[in-house]
Amino acid sequence: MSKHIAVVGLGSMGGAMATALHRAGWQVHGHDTSPAARSAAEKEGVHTVDSLDQLAGTPYVVLSLPSAGVVEATVPTLLARPGTLAIVDTTTSQPATSAACASLAAEKGVAFVDAPVSGGRAGALAGRLTAFVGATSDALDAARPVLDALTDGQYRHLGDPGSGNVVKLLNNVLAAVNLVSVGEALAVAKAYGVDPAAAAAGISGASGGSKVSAAMYPDWVLTGTYDSGFALGLMARDAALAVETAGQRGETPQLLAAASSRWQEALAALGPGADFTEIARTVAPSLTDEGTAAA
């Protein structure tokens, strides 16, 4: 089996995946439009190229890109020369884009798998991401070596091309809802004189518990660090995309839409570069520095 692989998009997640693949013995070539991202990858032992077309024909390709539109623009260039076996798209993209790219790749005899991931930069560096996979059975088989390397087997085949992005968007919008609701709940606890950290611990051991109450608020909000590494702008985008995707099939999820609106408000107030846990500043200000200052 060839262990030549290209990683397109060397930001926080893509750079970490490229580093993990290099450490696992893959021969990794990377590309990013940012010279700084390429330089950071080079320091980790990843060989980088200035032009995307230099990676066309690489046996395996991983995409980690900022949007569906960039994926659409990238895939044809990668397919311009023969030799590619499988493209694994870890971008949180749009289902229709994944289906179209899979069809285009199939015409060239190349497998295309949408495999958006969860687990953050730490999971990427450890090769222990979770992936939501949409693909034909044949494409999945072709992509297994890459999926195994990125996730250590922690991926689930959810259906045809696009299915991975449907479920990843739903995962993210559920996290978005929970970040709003847990913040509001802990603010109520504080208003009654209950330590928010104690309330979060109590809730986390019961039926209302979640990763948000067990880790995100205690580790990143109540400590005031806000350093999860995931941007608020990306979560606001994903929540809006989830609601839009629902509408494309005639679904009108009112709670998800309401939560998405709260994220758009936070985006306007805090900017896209804020950490996504800073949503607490707008939905539960009494838990944050802003609330302390106001008091």
Structural write-up:
The chain is α/β, with parallel strands linked by helices and 295 residues long. It has helices at residues 12-23, 35-43, 68-78, 95-107, 120-126, 137-151, 163-191, 196-204, 211-221, 232-247, 254-270, 280-283, 289-294, and strands at 4-8, 27-31, 47-48, 60-63, 86-89, 111-114, 117-118, 130-134, 155-159. The strands form 2 sheets. A 6-stranded parallel β-sheet has the order 3-2-1-4-5-6. The protein has a 3-stranded mixed β-sheet with strand order 7-8-9. Helix 3 links the parallel strand 4 (60-63) and strand 5.
The fourth-level CATH homologous superfamily of the largest domain is: NAD(P)-binding Rossmann-like Domain
- In whole angstroms, how far apart are the ends? 63 Å
State mean pLDDT (0 to 100 scale): 96
CATH architecture descriptor text of the largest domain? 3-Layer(aba) Sandwich
Shape: globular
Task: Give a brief description.
The protein is of the alpha/beta class and about 300 residues long. The protein folds into two domains: about 5-160, 3-Layer(aba) Sandwich (Rossmann fold); about 165-295, N-(1-d-carboxylethyl)-l-norvaline Dehydrogenase, domain 2, CATH 1.10.1040.
List the keywords.
about 300 residues; alpha/beta; Rossmann fold; N-(1-d-carboxylethyl)-l-norvaline Dehydrogenase, domain 2; 9 strands; globular; disordered C terminus
